[in-house]
Specification:
446 residues, 8-stranded antiparallel sheet, 11 helices, binds fe (ii) ion
Length: 446
């Protein structure tokens, strides 16, 4: 249990809030590139973006450069998201003031000829970069850090797929579901098993565990008390969850917490996911998932199609949610699924997070042994927030040269032998190293 002050301290994201200040030290994904590729309703490369409780306009100028500017025109505050894209920038429709991607004012055409007003005007502009199928912004002061060498940033474009979705709750509780290995045995429990190896969207837990003949659904159902170990890494925390099937057989799931707001999980033998939870404001967040394949190129059209069908444009708001009770069906809950909310595990996770309230009241919670990664992650967060308050130049997790250069992160879902947790961790890491060593995209020029 924590105090209200502590809960506010780790959840609230405004520019003056402690967690908000910390998050602004890290690159944030702000949009998918596909939002501008012409398939969406509005291909015009100008879009309002709300990030960390602040409003911006994201646009691409005629030369192809991206800018992210404060959304209110510095003249009299009109909305630049309705701006005209012309003459090397974005022009406010109110009086024609024109801004380039760096926030420089290029023109104030209603002012008298020879006016030098422009020279004194500067709109705040955040640095923007394309990476892993998304646009990323740096909301911090000074020089942005380099991108980390995570799989999704170093693999060729053909092997990376990005998607996003809006959840109506605080970013931290959304992150915390990703570092909670025990919930899968309950929240994602299905009473009937599928044929191993059969894959369909949203049923990752039914088929993730390579090599095994044991249906994942049965494994999770019958082994509901995982042993969980949590270790610090340069980037956050490494989690290993063990489910002992018999003395010689263990199910292993190795996942990562990537400070401050992402986690990495295995999707299949060939694919890993890094998922960021990006605050829109205190009360909602986007998950941005970055899928990286170690095997064949990704069939992005298929993956996008499956996901687009479940989301409403232009906000990527899930079609199933609070407004329609997450599709809850009492009969289904009796006969088929633990939740009664269908077979899409993303909907289950969304319900778990959103039903905690817009900001979970952590003064009323009671944590157990399975929450040890959540406890460790909150400690890291509080520690970093404290350090930053004491000294703005404090080193922060994941941002030193060693952490940024580290490849990975390792993620594994597999059946292994018996043994103690250290031996099984080594075994899991060796499996991850093996798939990296033979990754097909490594053979191709990036
Ligand atoms: Fe889940």
């Amino acid at each position: 249990m924590m105090s209200r002050e502590q809960n506010d301290r780790i959840t609230r994201v405004g520019p003056a809030d402690p967690a908000g200040r910390l998050l602004r030290r890290y690159w944030q994904p702000v949009a998918l590139l596909e939002e501008f590729d012409g398939q969406q309703s509005s291909a015009r490369p100008v879009k309002a973006v709300r990030l960390l409780g602040e409003d911006f306009v994201l646009f691409r100028d005629e030369a192809g450069a991206w800018g992210l500017l404060d959304r209110d025109c510095p003249h009299r505050g009109a909305d630049l998201a309705y701006g005209r894209r012309e003459d090397g920038g974005l022009r406010c429709p109110f009086h024609g003031w024109l801004f380039d991607v760096t926030g420089r004012c290029l023109d104030t055409p209603a002012e008298p000829a020879g006016s030098r007003l422009c020279e004194r005007i500067r709109q705040r502009a955040l640095p923007v970069r394309e990476a892993a199928g998304a646009l990323w912004a740096w909301p911090g002061e000074g020089e942005p850090p380099p991108f980390p060498a995570l799989d999704c940033f170093v693999a060729p474009d053909s092997h990376v797929f990005a998607f996003k979705g809006l959840w109506e709750c605080n970013w931290l509780q959304s992150l915390e579901v990703g570092i909670d290995p025990a919930h899968a045995s309950f929240l994602h429990r299905f009473f009937e098993d599928e044929v191993p190896g059969e894959q369909s969207y949203g049923r990752q837990f039914r088929s993730a565990s390579g090599e095994s003949e044991l249906p994942m659904t049965r494994l999770l159902r019958e082994h509901a008390r995982p042993e969980i170990s949590v270790e610090p890494t340069a980037r956050g925390l490494q989690l290993l969850a063990l489910r002992r099937i018999d003395p010689h057989t263990t199910h292993l799931r190795l996942t990562q917490h990537l400070f401050p707001q992402a986690f990495a999980i295995p999707l299949s033998e060939d694919m890993t996911i890094v998922q960021y939870h990006v605050p829109v404001d205190d009360h909602s967040n986007y998950w941005f998932a970055f899928f990286t394949s170690f095997g064949d190129a990704i069939d992005k059209e298929r993956m996008r199609g499956q996901r687009l069908a479940l989301h409403q444009m232009p906000d990527y708001r899930p079609r199933v949610g609070r407004a329609n009770q997450y599709g809850f069906d009492a009969q289904e809950q009796v006969r088929q699924t633990f939740t009664g909310m269908g077979h899409d595990i993303n909907v289950h996770d969304q319900w778990a997070c959103e039903s905690q309230g817009r900001i979970q009241d952590r003064t009323r919670e009671h944590l157990g042994t399975t929450d040890r990664a959540i406890i460790a992650a909150r400690r890291l967060l509080l520690k970093a927030i404290d350090a930053l308050e004491r000294d703005p130049a404090s080193p922060l997790p994941g941002l030193d040269a060693g952490a940024l250069a580290e490849p990975g992160p390792p993620t594994v879902d597999a059946i292994g032998p018996g043994g103690d947790i250290d031996a099984l961790r080594s075994f899991a890491l060796s499996l991850d190293a093996r798939r990296r060593a033979v990754a097909r995209h490594r053979e191709q020029p990036a």
